[in-house]
Specification:
Length: 191
Amino acid sequence: MAKNSYEVRWHARGGQGAKTAAALVAEVALVEGKYSQGFPEYGPERMGAPIRGFTRIADTPIRTHSAVYYPDAVIVLDDTLLEIVDVAENLSADGVVVVNTRISPDELKKKLSNHGKGVFQIDASQIALDEIGRNIPNTPMIGALVKASACVQIDTVLEDTKKKLGKKFSEKIVQGNLKAVQRGYEEVKQV
């Protein structure tokens, strides 16, 4: 990709919302007047199986239609993947890694092959349980990504998420997801 782009690779297990998160961030970029792509890696996904999602954001049309191999940000929705996948593989030197975890910062850094510019940590699962009532950590992780990378604006994320989810879900679920995004943005910490 050209220098005017930002690429995100999402690591999760089936059912955690990585596909939705990748697409939502891409849609927010479109709302902000940028070009974008948001898609999952297709394969034999099933509930609980490791999956990957991808988001590309650029100022010019995107001509690449492949997985993200050299990410600027890596988002990990399930820290058990750190044991089986090199999530930070090919992370750019100034890239960031954001992990949903409760493990200590030192232990987290030891589990990553590459730290890039920064490692960020958040307990997105607890936020999801508190705000949505289910362990689907994708929306708090979107907030955490925005804080760690500034690839899109938090206000646009909140407005667009309300609009998109409002078409499908009850006001209670929409508000829970909006609170989860906001808390993800506020509670993520660089380690």
